[in-house]
Amino acid sequence: MNTLFYFALFHSAPEGGFWVSFPDFPECFTQGESLEETYAMAVDALGLCVSDYTSKDLPKPSRPSDITVPEGATLALVSLDLAAYRRKHNTKAVKKTLSIPEWLNEEALSLGINFSQVLQEALLQKIGQKQ
């Protein structure tokens, strides 16, 4: 579940620019001045909204045929690289205590290895996400 795809409705704003709503996330809205800015804002808004859900609670994406598109709106597919979004926005560090053999600790220290970085890289590899 590295990339999520949800449909969004892009509406022209009367004062100029666009605003976006997500049929599968009624609480999720954003806006922008240009189409490019609005799409980028839609990706960020989707990421913020998805962050409030666990992977089990995420709504199943609607099928395009099940979505009513209001007059003047355009249906667009918004993709969210969840791992990239989390790396960009969730940088809070948590402390972990672990045990390794003494000889391995000494070797790693002598080579100047950053233990936190090695653990993060290994965990990302283990869960199948790019860095």
Radius of gyration: 21 Å
Largest sheet: 4 strands, antiparallel
Outline the low-pLDDT stretches: none
The proportion of residues in beta strands is 15-25%
Q: Specify the CATH class of the largest domain.
A: Alpha Beta
Basic shape: elongated
User: How much is the average pLDDT?
Assistant: 91
Describe this structure in words.
The protein is an alpha+beta fold and 131 residues long. The protein folds into 2 domains: 87 residues, Double Stranded RNA Binding Domain (2-Layer Sandwich); 39 residues, no CATH class. The chain is built from 4 helices and 4 strands. Strands 3-2-1-4 form a 4-stranded antiparallel beta sheet. A hairpin with a 2-residue loop joins strand 2 and strand 3. The mean pLDDT is 91.
